[in-house]
User: Which sequence fits this backbone?
């Protein structure tokens, strides 16, 4: 039996089909939670935002018109749910580091003898927590969830070049954090 595609599930959900909605939730719950967990300061906030995400999916299923992917649509709803929860924290980043300084922290011009120490899941998770949220989300979408550049740009409401710039800075932040933790 052919597995129903996301468009069909959302159309059925819009018509009130709870089993279609449950299937859709099961399909997209794990990626949405991984994304939210990477952005939220704690598990409880990620879980709250996840609930709001799928309430939003239920309410908005009739407005889904396709696009790059249903997953991207869900992650956009998730991002907005978390942002609503932290609206008071919106605005400029806490700090802005010039790219050349960030590159030095990431190890530009240094031998790669530390890279073996960096392949540690716990170390990567701790370094990811150090990446500013607006950069962490692009890393999560592109490198963890494996979304295309166009999908990520769509979810974040950015142009593709702006997304690429943010992704480059985010990767440098991550590597700099890994090096700092490995050197500590």
Assistant:
């Amino acid at each position: 039996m052919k597995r129903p595609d996301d468009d069909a599930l959302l159309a059925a959900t819009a018509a009130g089909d709870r089993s279609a909605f449950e299937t859709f939730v099961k399909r997209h719950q794990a990626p949405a939670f991984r994304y939210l967990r990477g952005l939220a300061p704690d598990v409880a906030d990620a879980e709250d935002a996840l609930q709001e995400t799928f309430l939003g999916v239920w309410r908005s299923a009739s407005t889904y018109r396709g696009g790059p992917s249903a997953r991207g649509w869900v992650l956009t709803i998730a991002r907005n749910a978390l942002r609503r929860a932290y609206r008071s924290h919106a605005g400029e980043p806490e700090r802005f580091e010039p790219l050349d300084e960030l590159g030095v922290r990431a190890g530009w011009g240094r031998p790669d003898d530390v890279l073996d120490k960096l392949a540690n899941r716990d170390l990567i998770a701790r370094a990811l927590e150090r990446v500013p949220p607006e950069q962490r989300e692009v890393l999560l979408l592109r490198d963890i969830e494996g979304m295309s550049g166009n999908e990520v740009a769509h979810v974040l409401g950015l142009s593709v070049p702006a997304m690429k710039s943010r992704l480059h800075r985010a990767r440098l932040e991550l590597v700099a954090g890994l090096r700092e933790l490995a050197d500590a």
